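Notes to self, Glutathione S-transferase:
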Amino acid sequence: MSSISTRAIKATSPAVQIRSMHLSTMTSSGPSPSTVTQHLAGTGQAWHDKISSEGPFPPERGRYRLYIGLFCPFAHRANLVRHLKPGLADLLPITVVKPYPKGDENGWPGWQFPSPSSNTTADSNNNNNNNTDNDNSDKEDEYPGATPDPLYGAKYLHELYFKADPAYKGRYSVPVLWDTQTHTIVNNESAELLRDLQTCFDEILPTNGDTKPETGAMSPSNNSNNNKDMNKQPWLYPPHLRTEIDAITNWMQRDLNTGVYKAGFATTQESYDAAVPAVFAALNKMEKLIARNGGPFILGREMTELDIRAYATVVRFDTVYVQHFKCNLGTIRHDYPQINNWLKNLYWNVKGFRESTDFKHIKENYTKSHAEINPRAITPMGPWPEVEGPDGYESDVGKLRIGGVKMPLVLELEEKLQ
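result:
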């Protein structure tokens, strides 16, 4: 992250250590503009530490809290690991910001919490569905599934950023892994949390039996075993698949996860025309990967980080990205039988995926917080259903055709993906 090493500032307190490392990467003045660059590969104004017994943030019960937005595909990664890892939800409670309003064109004042007086029934330790109903709340402040800040009664997420670093000049993004003991941010980079949360609490999680996630009756996995040594490694990043995971992650992050944002926030016809074919080239490639490897996951019988990364984008594709970001060369449900089947399996059959997905938050965030794209803030009703039902799931992916968008430029870009 910077030229200042943790060792060089080792003598200071944990909060000051992380703040000192962070200050060296801040922008020169003011909150960063709300532009597509925020979504490309993480922000330079970020905290990159981890929970570890060898560092300033040891794993402890009741010490940490995860702040997320149910709308955000990048925060969704961390929330998915929290849902999938048995016992992790009990150790890592969540607080959920409202999906809108976001603020002005510079992202100020940023994401909000409902007030502490709001009678939100969302359980911040909730291990089940994120959807809730608030019947007795202040109607102006409530939002189903959003939760007040239980630590400081903050109204805005930026209050936590300034508590961690009073001189902060960056963005106020989710996810945020927060340390309640030193009152600072541990990490706010979703890719790192996706990896770190798989193992960072292992030494204080129950050791009796399997601590791997349930993968569902229709999603067999070779991950499941009772070998405690395996729990010391990220189960979604198994050693024998790491080379392939790394290679696919490169283009998936560039062309799919952030590719939809390049298309959606394009300000010229030229930039839009350049972005959209790359999105569908990545989907074409993913379609073939699932078919080649036989499912039910992208690399076959083992769930990996690729499934987490892809799901957070694909589950939003037909509902948001097709219409809102104009990624409309095709849809998942009509043009990608393999991906659609993969999506149905994860959403309906693998515990944690449906429970961490809230389409009200997703739809209303995009359509009501991007005034430059949707100035009337009207949220489309469709598509319906958001994810097609489980009855059509096919466990033998060989029976499904291999779909894709056949536009020549898309096919040309697909050929270049490794």
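- Strands lie at 64-68, 94-96, 176-179, 184-187.
- The domain at 1-213 is CATH 3.40.30.10 (Glutaredoxin).
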